[in-house]
């Protein structure tokens, strides 16, 4: 209340009368006059000399006005700064993404986004952990799977194509599985978050227990390297092995029984008052063609 009264006092001093200040502020003249009088009573000093014809500042009023005007200017500057963030892409965005997509797909996307929007600073946290968006001050999380927390917006980007892959050396040594049941006799490379594999078969889905795998990791890049080294069969996103498949370093296993797609989402807090920088990044993700790259069948030009 006192800050509002200080701003009203500065407005009266600028306009030269209670009537003019009331017109600018949209308040009744009596309210403006009362608020300034209450401010003087709180301070214990007269700020304005009043007469029937004019107002003038007291010595205390001249000193006080300088500080009140600085406060008003600071408030206006704060509003202007937020307006720039709202209306034009600027400021800092903190984003997080899983390691595989964050290291293989995001760098080129973010480099192009930065060239297009140089006023936006992007801080990128690469982690397979489900980071707390509020505690970590994260503006955007790119994640596989939707969040249960309905207080966040979850916007689907596209499917993540997946496959089973193994090296030619491993398949020459252990043979090619012909159906999902044959995987029981093979060395499976397990991601700790996925102890069972779900595969398509004859219009249905079958489960493959991979929990007894002798090699396991919590990182998809490690599983890819193990597959390349001939250690076994790994279930991987197609975008991670696209080049290895093209060069023959890896072969797709059971191509007629692929795993169902995962889905990739952009997750961010709240639906209203979205910063312009975040809107620009979400729009650019669509324009750049990240969905096609996640699918693993198309490389962005």
Reading off the top of the CATH hierarchy, the class of the largest domain is best stated as: Alpha Beta
* Overall 3D form: rod-shaped
Number of strands: 14
**Unreliable segments (pLDDT under 50, ≥5 consecutive)?**
none
Counted by DSSP, the helix tally is 11
Which radius of gyration do the C-alpha atoms yield?
A: 31 Å
Helix content estimate: 40-55%
The helix/strand class is: alpha/beta
Compressed to H and E, one letter per element, the order equals HHHEEHEHHEEEEHEEEEHEHEEHH
Question: Strand portion, in percent?
Answer: 15-25%
Per CATH, which architecture of the largest domain?
3-Layer(aba) Sandwich
Averaged pLDDT: 90
Number of domains: 3
CATH topology of the largest domain: the name is D-Maltodextrin-Binding Protein, domain 2
Instruction: Compute the separation of the termini in Å.
Output: 58 Å
Biggest sheet descriptor: 5 strands, mixed
CATH superfamily of the largest domain: Periplasmic binding protein-like II
Biggest sheet strand order reads 4-3-5-14-6
Keywords:
single chain; 301 residues; alpha/beta; Arc Repressor Mutant, subunit A; D-Maltodextrin-Binding Protein, domain 2; 3 domains; 5-stranded mixed β-sheet; 11 helices; 14 strands
Can you describe what's shown?
This protein is an alpha/beta fold and 301 residues long. The chain is built from eleven helices and 14 strands. β9 and β10 form a beta hairpin. The chain starts with a helix and ends in a 6-residue tail after the last helix. The relative contact order is 0.14.
